[in-house]
Amino acid sequence: MIFELTPEQKMVQEQAKRFAENEIKPFVEQEEEQHAFPLERVKKMADLGFFGCGVAEEYGGNGMGFMESVLLAEQIAKVSPSWRLPFNMQNLGPALTVQEFGTEEQKQTHIPKWVAADSVGFFAITEPNSGSDVAGMKTTAKDCGDHWEINGQKTWISNAHVGDVGLVYAYTDRAAKYKGMTCFLVDLKKTEGVTTRPIETKLGLHCAPTGEVLFDDAKVPKDAVLGQVGDGFRICMWQLNNTRLGCAAGALGCAGGVLDLAIQYANERTQFGQPIGKFQLIQASIAEMMAEHHAAQLLVYRAAYLKDQKAPNQLETSIAKFYAAEAAVHATNETMKIYGSWGFSTEYPVERYFRDAKSFQVVEGTSNIQKTIIAGIALGHAANR
Ligand SMILES: Cc1cc2nc3c(=O)[nH]c(=O)nc-3n(C[C@H](O)[C@H](O)[C@H](O)COP(=O)(O)OP(=O)(O)OC[C@H]3O[C@@H](n4cnc5c(N)ncnc54)[C@H](O)[C@@H]3O)c2cc1C
């Protein structure tokens, strides 16, 4: 077992750290206030090769894998958890899924554009009445001979109102249940019958757009189907097992960012004539955060390593996502306490991490859903894939 990153991986990590420090940190608080998502930054990230991980060279890939994607997303999330989202939207979500299931034409048309951020990606699974229960979705796609007609509503979709082309899951045969779902490649801006609107009531992740997509007799071409008709549920689960890792990397970064803030404040803030970091109860908080952060890091890196080896990793990915999300929420909660009233103030960034961290317990399958996957595999009800 080797616990050392390669020199190239360390360079990738360093590059992302510099990018976060120079290109995000100086603007993050103002952008949070304005709920801004400058697309030029997504483009800059693409130009640095951030979204080519796991992608074959002929589609714009750069020879990097899941491990590098995790290292990049972690460093970015340390400064802004919002800005880890493009790793899933441009790379680990639609791009890798089309690479796995798409036709040669679909791969050539779409993947290079996502990798270069010439097209803003998204994936639309969740609906008002179906979140964890993916198979409970109501959206349908009807075969109309020379095209498909999609009807339904997707909600809580990252990039909904800024997105170009992405993945939409719908039932083509509801009676066939899990085998009746199909995945479509849909251009949100060019498809007649599609409207989008932002969700403006979010607790956090203010720089990561989230919204709704409505399909009203939306016409998509016959060749918009990804994989086979009826393969949608399997494709969706495959995709989530990858985007879940991106989420875990974000949680890891969030926990690491807030831990740095906690240590800095505990050394600076003086009460009863000494830095609060001298008090054992504060030390206990720091120690817990530190131990959990290290554990989360090992789990996230292990899941990334297994994916790069193309080894079974569903169990390890769910463990990493579950643990990193819980660690992020715990770390931000502890840091809020360490900051006292200043934790409660928007003048300090701690409350931003606190709000953002909660998202990690929800997205890409809630913490409960991760537990059901972990227990299911542990109990032998399902195989680790
Ligand atoms: C910021 C943000 C971005 C998002 N981006 C996207 C996106 O890009 N694309 C997309 O499709 N979706 C996206 N989502 C939606 C997200 O994936 C869902 O919110 C999530 O899957 C949970 O679904 P739900 O909110 O409907 O909760 P529900 O499924 O209604 O769950 C409610 C509660 O019940 C629990 N629960 C449900 N089923 C079980 C069970 N079997 N066992 C135990 N407990 C259970 C859950 O853990 C949760 O605590 C996003 C959400 C957020 C907040």
Feature tags:
Butyryl-Coa Dehydrogenase, subunit A, domain 1; 4-stranded mixed beta sheet; binds flavin-adenine dinucleotide; Butyryl-CoA Dehydrogenase, subunit A, domain 3; 385 residues; Butyryl-CoA Dehydrogenase, subunit A, domain 2; 3 domains; globular; single chain; alpha+beta
Low-confidence stretches: none
**Strand segment count:** 10
The CATH architecture of the largest domain would be: Up-down Bundle
Secondary-structure element order, N to C: HHHHHHHEEEEEEEEHEEHHHH
CATH class (first level) name of the largest domain: Mainly Alpha
DSSP helical segment count: 12
Name given to the CATH homologous superfamily of the largest domain? Butyryl-CoA Dehydrogenase, subunit A, domain 3
Helix content: 40-55%
Provide the residue-averaged pLDDT.
98
Structural class: alpha+beta
What overall geometry do the principal axes of the alpha carbons give? Answer: globular
Number of spatially distinct domains: 3
> Mind describing the biggest β-sheet?
4 strands, mixed
Give the names of the bound compounds.
flavin-adenine dinucleotide
| Strand line-up of the largest beta sheet | 1-4-5-8
